[in-house]
Automatic annotation (TrEMBL):
Gene: moaA
SMART domains: Elp3
Function field: Catalyzes the cyclization of GTP to (8S)-3',8-cyclo-7,8-dihydroguanosine 5'-triphosphate.
Signal sequence region: none
Occurrences of domain Radical SAM core (ranges): 4-230
Source species, domain of life: Bacteria
InterPro entries reported for this sequence: Aldolase_TIM, Elp3/MiaA/NifB-like_rSAM, MoaA, MoaA-like, MoaA_NifB_PqqE_Fe-S-bd_CS, MoaA_twitch, MoCo_biosynth_MoaA/MoaC, rSAM
Taxonomic source organism: Jiella sonneratiae
The name this protein goes by in its record: GTP 3',8-cyclase
Enzyme's top EC category: lyase
Amino acid sequence: MIDPFGRAISYLRISVTDRCDFRCVYCMAENMTFLPKRDLLTLEELDRLATTFVDKGVRKLRLTGGEPLVRRNIMHLVRSLSRHLQTGALDDLTITTNGSQLERFAAELADCGVKRINVSLDTLDADKFKAITRWGDFSKVMAGIRAAQAAGIRIKLNAVALKGFNDAEIPAMLEWAHGEGMDLTLIETMPLGEIEGDRTDQYLPLSAVRAKLAERFTLTDIPYKTGGPARYVEVVETGGRLGFITPLTHNFCESCNRVRLTCTGTLYMCLGQEDAADLRGPLRASEGNELLSNAIDAAIGRKPKGHDFIIDRETRKPAVSRHMSVTGG
Ligand code: SAM
């Protein structure tokens, strides 16, 4: 699958549910209305869709959400998709999780061939964790991280950099993560969906974070890639890797290899644009995959060049109206 700008699409992210057991303040409003369960694709339909993408050249699948591990019987889908690892059709099957349910599922994920996962964690302070997630329990996430480590799964921590919230804590998080053998990636907050607060108050450009870190640590650019948008440095003092995902200060669209599927079968060709393609119709219209395959080709054929996120006091509206939980980041 090659898009109009010559980019090969080899990475599919699937949001398996829009529901989440946290309500992170920068991600969702507290009173979210979720999709009625009857609108969701079944796990078998998600499998068929994912498999069609694998047949068409996708080498990396990430399950996300909402919180992927709160979808009922999610391990049924993971187990089923793991067959593509065994055949060699897929290089990587992974998840992005808030860690709340990880203690329960870590061993089974490892058994399915999941080798590394992303865990979202914005602070190491239990009280601040409660404040930012509204509903989260820090000790459960820590137990989840321990369980994943014990199962031999490599963890990358993802932290959204938030002004006045965790900026002072970033050096400590970095030292802790690297001490535990985990990479850490920092993310700029993106203007997706209406939330209660003002994003201008939260937005922290990572260029400034990097400059501050460089006063204390030696940061060396490295060509390390995980298939995602992060650019990495090695932190000489800790020997660990630190990633930067900078959709605002440095647009990373030129190397975009990703498309995003929602739990209702809508394909978004760009995280920061409204255009989407319905794949549920062609999926359900016939038992064969020809219609579906054609619909995917048509969608890839209109993948946009990139997004234009703006966060400032004048731009009141989010770049796109849907929340991050629809596509899962
Ligand atoms: N529930 C899972 C988790 O917490 O990792 C997967 C879905 S969550 C939407 C994926 C990632 O998006 C998390 O790391 C979260 O912090 C991040 N995120 C959510 N809203 C965001 C926003 N507006 N800007 C930047 N990152 C955001």
